[in-house]
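Reviewers of the previous submission asked for a worked example of the structure-prediction workflow described in the proposal, so we include one complete record here. The input consisted solely of the amino acid sequence. No template or homolog information was supplied to the procedure at any stage.
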Amino acid sequence: MLEKVEVARGVVPTGYRALQGDEWIDLPLGEVIEEAELCIHVNGRELVTFAATPVDQEALALGFLANQGLIRTREEVRELHLSADGLCVDVWLDHDVPAPDRQVITSGCSGGVTFDHLVQRLQPLSATLQVPADALFAGASELYRAATLYPRSRGVHTSALFRDSQLIVAAEDVGRHNTLDKLRGFCLLREIDSRGALLLSTGRISSEMITKGARMGCPVLASRTSATSLSVRLAREWNVTLVGYLRNSPMGPRGRRMIVYSHPERIVLDHPSP
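From that input alone, the workflow returned the following structure tokens.
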């Protein structure tokens, strides 16, 4: 008799066979991260459809609109509804929005805009924040503890905001860009000011990721993995400290480490080298 397992939102039960050493093992209670097409309707018209994990869909919709520059405050949203199947968010604003240039965006699409267009979108951040390296390493550990879907299924990204070494809010999604939209949406729904917060993510930092982080007013964006060439250029233009390969492994063979691609003066050591 199979053990009954509680099904969590955001994962789908999927039995599979695994090869461990020279032996096949059947795992009928396995799970995978849920991926679905989620649409956002604005003022009665479909604005965009993209791949996402159908969890915290309202936050995702609001954050997407904010990170695209279509709204700035929660007060601009007259109504917000989630469809019964959880795959469409209906948003009614107090103003019109321009018709989209494209209807479908995947979780890995950067939009195809040029560097000059991106630079002109935002003014450089003026924050003079300094962050202890230890706060980044502690945040990396807290980021993994905040993940609830990853331990069950893998294949999902997590991002989180921190202030004064305290986790403010975290979000998970199959798309790394979607996690930042969910964070922005949570901030709008919960009246959280993201400006000056530290932003940590498990996903690769692309131009779209750095754009969303800068729009949120985060002067430091760190990831466990790499940055792209365009994200580095934008981080330098926008006065954002971009950190990659942030690993908190004090007992590992390579220890704690990070790569700082831009504005390293913000990262300070408690015990600087002589």
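The domain at 37-112 is CATH 3.10.20.10 (Ubiquitin-like (UB roll)). We consider this example representative of the routine output the project will generate in years two and three.
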